TrEMBL record:
UniProt-annotated catalytic positions: 361 (for fru-6p isomerization activity)
Record keywords: Aminotransferase, Cytoplasm, Glutamine amidotransferase, Repeat, Transferase
Protein's name according to its UniProt entry: Glutamine--fructose-6-phosphate aminotransferase [isomerizing]
Subcellular location: Cytoplasm
Top-level taxon in the UniProt lineage: Bacteria
Subunit structure comment from the entry: Homodimer.
Cited function: Catalyzes the first step in hexosamine metabolism, converting fructose-6P into glucosamine-6P using glutamine as a nitrogen source.
Reactions the enzyme catalyzes: D-fructose 6-phosphate + L-glutamine = D-glucosamine 6-phosphate + L-glutamate
Chain ranges of the SIS domain: 43-182, 215-356
The enzyme's E.C. designation: 2.6.1.16
Principal location class: cytoplasm
Location of this fragment in the whole protein: 246 to 611 of 611
Annotated organism of origin: Mucilaginibacter panaciglaebae
């Protein structure tokens, strides 16, 4: 049911305040400043004693995993590896005592992720999963499942499922930090109060839709596009590029901004727009240098910045302001404009937004 919306993708983008609310409900207890995961109760000791988490997933779910790596290493003080399920399953992966394998899948049916899950279980690992579809194959093959509760997602391009996966990972990182007693109660209280505002901050962020529609009128004429970000904005760059390529068929690549000078800079000229994800402040000066390098080569710069930004605004051709948030929320807040940019660019190119060519909603064959 599109409930009056023209496309499922658009509807699902705008459902994000509600889907995130559903995802956090029951898990986020701001009064006691606690994160709870009832589904992990039986595995608490194993999680406390874990030496490493190996995340296995594909596509957008793999990007969520990369974001989770930043969160879990920082707040859970636990080492994380993120693997493409398809590579993991055919390598001879080494699974040691104390390794947890975490599968991430919207559908719970992706063939490679399911095979990786089964392999990890056979090797004796504790297998957890993050999934949106209750009772799907991957949850059935796992010891415990954290459901994203985003509601059914129909558009082939994953939007609300992605943001709820990232939300579960943010909560999970704090949960691990709490049960390992690595986070000061006051720090946790502050972070959880902020996180509880996520649905309303997303609502505010969605107001950038008109700006993104306007930027798409420029962008949709190009054949190539580069997405750059540093730190946790790097996986956001990958996600922005995947959204754009899969529904608008514009060739797009995501890179860590620092990698630009190791190759991609050779591509930059007036035909290569560059989208900077620069809403995080920790590497502000460095991002400014990267923007100058692009401008010097006549590249068109589109920048996603926090609303208090002063410098990038003076340099970029197009600016998208998003609310100022902490690092656990920034990846979601920065992805929303990129979802909309892909959507409007695809429309202008007369592409089938909900059913892009050659793609299926769940990839149940290799
Ligand atoms: O259902 P899954 O999360 O396992 O699906 C993984 C990918 O096939 C999926 O994320 C794909 O990349 C999407 N079309 C991205 O929008």
């Amino acid at each position: 049911e599109k409930s009056g919306y023209e496309h499922f993708m658009f509807k699902e983008i705008f459902e994000q305040p509600q889907s995130i609310k559903n995802c956090m409900q029951c898990r986020l207890d701001t009064e006691r400043a606690l994160v709870t995961f009832d589904e992990l109760e039986d595995y608490k000791t194993e999680i406390i004693n874990a030496r490493r988490i190996i995340i296995v997933s594909c596509g957008t779910s793999w990007h969520a995993g990369l974001i989770g790596e930043y969160f879990i290493e920082k707040y859970g003080e636990l080492s994380v590896e993120v693997e493409y399920a398809s590579e993991f399953r055919y390598r001879s992966p080494i699974i040691n005592r104390g390794d947890i394998v975490l599968a991430i899948s919207q559908s719970g049916e992706t063939a490679d992720t399911l095979a990786a899950t089964e392999l990890a279980k056979a090797e004796g690992a504790l297998v957890l999963c993050i999934c949106n579809v209750v009772g799907a194959s991957i949850p059935r093959a796992s010891h415990a499942t954290m459901y994203t509760n985003a509601g059914i997602e129909i558009g082939v391009a994953s939007t609300k499922a992605f943001s709820s996966q990232v939300t579960v990972l943010a909560l999970l990182s704090l949960y691990i930090g709490q049960i390992k007693e690595k986070i000061q109660p006051q720090t946790a209280a502050g972070l959880l109060t902020e996180l509880s505002k996520l649905p309303s901050v997303i609502r505010k962020t969605l107001q950038c839709a008109d700006t993104m529609q306007f930027i798409a009128t420029e962008l949709h004429n190009f054949y190539n596009c580069l997405f750059l970000g540093r730190g946790v904005a790097f996986p956001v760059a990958l996600e922005g590029a995947l959204k754009l390529k899969e529904i608008s068929y514009i060739h797009a690549e995501g890179y860590p901004a620092a990698e630009m000078k190791h190759g991609p800079i050779a591509l930059i000229d007036d035909k290569m727009p560059v989208i900077f994800i620069a809403a995080n402040n920790d590497s502000y000066e460095k991002i400014i240098n990267n923007i100058q390098e692009v401008k010097a080569r006549k590249g068109m710069v589109i920048a996603i910045v926090a609303e208090d930004d002063t410098e990038i605004k003076k340099m970029a051709d197009f600016i998208v302001e998003v609310p100022q948030v902490n690092d656990l929320m920034m990846p979601i807040i920065s992805t929303i404009p990129l979802q909309l940019l892909a959507y409007y660019s695809a429309l202008l190119r007369n592409c089938d937004v909900d059913q892009p060519r050659n793609l299926a909603k769940s990839v149940t064959v290799e």
